[in-house]
Amino acid sequence: MKFVLPDTQAARATLKDEFYETGRCSIAPILSDENALALETFLAEFEDWHRMRGFQSRRFDMPPRRTWEGNPDAVAESDQIERAIATDSGKAFAYRYDAISMVPDELAAMGETPLAALRKAFTDESTLAFIRELSEEEAVREVEIQATRFREGDFLSQHHDGPTHDRKVATVLGLSRDWIADWGGNLLFPSVDERIEGLSPGFNRLDLFGVPQFHLVTAVAASAPRPRIAVSGWFVS
Question: Inter-axis angle of helices 33-45 and 114-123, to 10 degrees?
Fold first, then answer.
């Protein structure tokens, strides 16, 4: 699996200009149709997602539901935390969504999967060289990524990913086919003059934006026919 990166100097220059002027850009398609479909199918069928939750500077992550759903106390506590996060989300940084870690050791334990192949695409030297050229961040050498699933009501409130010494360029590889803005899960970028720009979830599209930069993911609506699926994280030094 490899990324389909712009193959002409003119196309690369256009993306670089856009990234310089706005702090972000997108590439689509970023994978072959076959590889994008394999990732979409794998993530749609995968069952052992971890639950990532946080608010008021505290984290309440949970292992896959099958490991604790038979425990009434654990279920009650989890439901209580879900409600607390939903009601507190407008007051402080908060989030709730599902995730699959994509650190090398954990991917190796899963065997050969599309996620393992995707990580190789992210860390291929041609990809890293392109990101260095695009962002002028010569220190980029690695990635920190995870698969994410936003179900009904899941969201990620406003934050800016930094400043940190290692995160250079944030990335979201969308795997949400035929998604519309009404279903939520939109990646938004608020500005100081109260304007908001953003993107609806895409399919086989790689979104890139500089760090730090304020952004958020809106709550997925009850009308959404399926979860918002993506692979997200950062290119890092």
Answer: 130
Q: What is the CA radius of gyration of the chain?
A: 18
- Residue 78 pLDDT: 87
Residues of the chain with pLDDT under 50: none
Tokens of 66: 């099958």
The pLDDT score that the predictor gives to residue 149 is 98
CA nearest to 187, candidates 168, 176, 172: 172
Exposed e or buried b per residue across 51-68, where buried means at least 16 C-beta atoms within 10 angstroms of its C-beta: bbbbbeeeebebeebeee
**C-alpha to C-alpha distance for 34 and 17, rounded to whole angstroms:** 30
Q: What topology is assigned to 9-55+68-236 in CATH?
A: Jelly Rolls (2.60.120)
| Residue pair 73/105 in contact by the 8 Å Cβ criterion | no
